[in-house]
Design the sequence.
């Protein structure tokens, strides 16, 4: 026997408010995962380069950990009723992404020598 | 320049500007920033992948050049994402027009041009091998 269809609740005027916050939190998680992928690729490239490479790979791991710590309030916090501006989190995740790019350029240039 | 960078890190100044908008707009602006950042991260990941997974190319150092170009492009996209976020937030609070930008068009042209050059490189390699 099929269950009775549940009648749709009337849409509350603020129903979208929580959804906007949830969408934003999921976007932060996707971005943190993307930084993780970049960190793994950086570490793999660095490990081709001997002892210095191991140190650089460790730096890449530390970098990702730092990104997770800094963005934690936006990744896992319960959805606030009135979320504030993200503050320094935002430039920090962008600058660390650019940092991975810079590290990658150095590694590529070092591999050419 | 210094002032702009300081403003990225210190949102208090931004908070005092104009009127506080419906925060759904601020969250949407934040998600747009994150989408740009992921675009930049994809370019960076592409550069890192080119550097370690691509076989040597017909032209010397073409592989390294490609990797460095992708990495620099990705870094630029990431930094510009913050600047665009701050300018958009400012415009929303002051009730102004959203900032217009040529950057997406330039990025699209650069990526398209890069793809065409790579197709040529693949064709040159195929012609040499036959």
Sequence:
């Amino acid at each position: 026997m099929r269950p009775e269809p549940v009648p749709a609740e009337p849409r509350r005027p603020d129903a979208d408010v929580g959804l906007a916050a949830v969408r934003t939190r999921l976007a932060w998680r996707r971005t943190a995962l993307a930084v993780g992928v970049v960190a793994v690729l950086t570490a793999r490239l660095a490990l081709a380069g001997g002892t210095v490479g191991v140190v650089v790979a460790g730096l890449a791991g530390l970098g990702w950990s730092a990104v997770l710590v800094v963005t934690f309030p936006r990744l896992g916090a319960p959805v606030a009723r009135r979320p504030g501006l993200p503050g320094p989190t935002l430039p920090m995740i962008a600058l660390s992404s650019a940092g991975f790019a810079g590290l990658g350029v150095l590694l590529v240039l070092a591999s050419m020598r | 320049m210094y002032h702009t960078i300081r403003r990225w890190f210190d949102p208090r100044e931004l908070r005092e500007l104009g009127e506080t908008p419906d925060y759904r707009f601020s969250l949407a602006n934040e998600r747009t920033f994150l989408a740009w950042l992921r675009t930049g991260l994809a370019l960076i990941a592409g550069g890192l992948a080119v550097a370690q997974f691509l076989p040597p190319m017909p032209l010397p150092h073409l592989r390294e050049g490609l990797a460095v170009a992708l990495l620099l492009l990705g870094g630029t996209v990431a930094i510009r994402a913050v600047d665009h976020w701050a300018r958009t937030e400012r415009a929303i609070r002051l009730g102004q027009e959203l900032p217009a930008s040529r950057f997406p068009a330039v990025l699209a042209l650069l990526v398209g041009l890069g793809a065409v050059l790579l197709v040529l490189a693949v064709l040159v390699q195929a012609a040499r091998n036959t």
